[in-house]
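Tutorial, part two.
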Amino acid sequence: MTDPPMDRLRVLLVDDHAMVRSGFAMVLSVEDDIEVVGEAADGLEAIEQARATRPDVVLMDVQMPRMDGIEATGHLVADDLGHVVIVTTFDRDDYLFDALRAGASGFLLKNAGPEQLLDAVRAAGRGHALLAPEVTRRVIGRMAGKDDDRGDRVERPEPEALRHLTAREREVLVLLGRGLSNAEIAAELVLGEATVKTHVSNVLAKLHLRDRVQAVIYAYEAGLILPAED
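Running the prediction step on this input gives:
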């Protein structure tokens, strides 16, 4: 018998319902490139398990005893203990925004299909980010703080860090903010995908951003693009 491939994504499942964890495990375990390395029933146990198993990706519930998923996400991200994808039945803005601010790399509802779950795990494991399409626009509008308490548009000064970007990197950031993939950015700017990938990496590094979700938020907060009107 040959050894399992070394490039499998290691996944930790965190949910206070054993049946939910079992369901996720069934979906993930049949994939050749994914290995479930542990389970936890609350945030405190998640941190312990993450330190012991060193997962690439943590699928994290929100409402749990002892420590909820939002607080646990903050600890895991701060200690570089894996990329966190929030998976919850609660389609609530406050959970979503708090999770992303805590450092989550993705957000899915528990009614998402198996393919969406697998896409989220693989995207997070590769250092990318994934949001359910139905919540992406809410993330951008709310987290960018586009309106004040009276609903008026808020103008913000351009961040100093933007001066470190080249003109091309600035163009790439704008297109990232619009949600374009590397292939779409390449087509828009008539560049090779490898070149675009380099520009994206440079943007993230220069602006100290963790992933593409953070780049989207940054582009809006910097005023480079404005959220579309309803």
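The radius of gyration is 18 Å. In part three we will examine how such features are distributed along the chain.
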